[in-house]
Structure formats: C-alpha cells, structure tokens
C-alpha cells in the first residue's frame, strides 16, 4: 500500500483514574499506519508496561511524529461536580478531544478508544445521552464545553476493553496521558510537598489527605471515599488502612532487623 493510501487512525486513552490526588488525564493522538508501525517497533504500548524514563522518551517521539494530538484534564473540581457521574465526565472529555482533533487534522478514519464502560453498547448509549440531553448541555456551558452532536456522530468508533494493549495507537495515547500526569505530580510536589504515589492504598498519601481534611487542597478529589473516610478520623491511626499498612511496615522492619542480627 502506498503512503498516500495509508489509513489515518485515532487512539484515545486515560490515565490516573484511581488516585485521590490530581486530574484524570485523557489523550487522543492521530497517526497514519506507517507511523504507528514505527511506534510499535520503538516500544510504544500500554503505558503501565513501560518504565517512567522510557515513557518520557516515547512521549516526546509521539508528539514529534503524530499528525496531531490532544491532551486534556478531568480536573478534581469536575470530578467532584456530581451534576454528572464520572463516566459521563469521561465521555465529555473524550468527545471534546475528538472535536479538538477534528479541528487540527480532520482527515482521519477510525477512532480506537479504551472502553471504560461495561460494553460497547453502553458506550454508545452514554455517547447519545451526552450529546443530545439539553440539561447536560447547560451543565457543560459553565466549563466552556460545547459538543457538536452531528459532527461527532459521523465518526466510526471502536470502543474495546484493554484497547491500550491491543492497539499501538491507543498505547500511544496512554503514554501521553501518563506522562502528563507524572509531570503534574512533579509540579504539585514542588508546591505542596511529598504526598506519595497519590494512590488510596499509599499510607503517605492517606496521611497527606488526612492532614488537609479540614481545608482540602484543590488537588484532592473530595468526592472520593478515601477523602470521606479520612475526614471523619480524629486521628490518622483511626484509619484502618493506614494503621494496617503501618503495622505491616513495622513487622517487615522487625523481621529485617532480626535477619541482620543473626548474620
């Protein structure tokens, strides 16, 4: 197949959906099949399978060689805005990314998306509700988001589970999302101090959230159960997950000390 007949594809994926700190990043990237094959040879795949340094290198290559890309945030204030559910907000950002890509490089065929819904049927149902419900349109106006249902419905969507593992172009999008989140965390830590990994299971993160429970920082997702549980604790040791993790770490330290003593 000659280069001028190569299909042009879009991949979309998110990152950092679980943490209690920061934004959910969602990215879209456009490339032709030849470029996508080059990405695959370079090691582009699901970002979770790539070391941080390599991810950063690949992200730069993707940005340089893609026909276009769009990186957007689902910020904590949007996540915590219960006018819409989290799956609705994710659909809003995905569709806004597609509109952005249509403006930057409209000549693409299929859009591959890592599907966060239970099925492709549910994905399409949510797509329809987001683009046609007038109440939702009013909600989006306060975030300066307007969706063109007619243009968006003309796209051929392939929404599959684990698409970031199946399709290199979706893996590329996942890399852009994860490296953007990594950069945000680096910047946050320079401002707010070390809050650990941001994961609800990280005792350092839980302590950080608890310490800011009465006046939560804008980087904390206050609608997360993690925040709700911790904000109800008079002491951080009242938090079952924190206390259990601390006990495990103490046991490990004791066992390591005994091994050293017996050498």
Note down, in words, how this protein is organized.
- The chain is an alpha/beta fold and 263 residues long.
- It has two domains: 3-183, Nucleotidyltransferase, domain 5 (2-Layer Sandwich); 193-261, no CATH class.
- The chain is built from twelve helices and five strands.
- A five-stranded mixed sheet has the order 3-2-1-4-5, with helices on both faces.
- α2 packs across α9.
- It starts with 7 loop residues before the first strand and ends with a helix.
In CATH terms, the superfamily of the largest domain is Ribonuclease H-like superfamily/Ribonuclease H
> What overall form do the CA principal axes indicate?
globular
Secondary-structure-based class equals alpha/beta
Low-confidence stretches: 253-263
Query: Which band does the percent of strand residues land in?
Result: 5-15%
Q: State the order of secondary-structure elements, H for helix, E for strand.
A: EEHHEHHEHHHEHHHHH
* Secondary structure tally: strands: 5
Please state how the strands of the largest beta sheet are arranged side by side. Answer: 3-2-1-4-5
For the residues shown, what is the average pLDDT? Answer: 91
Largest sheet: 5 strands, mixed
How many structural units, i.e. domains? 2
Helix percentage = 40-55%
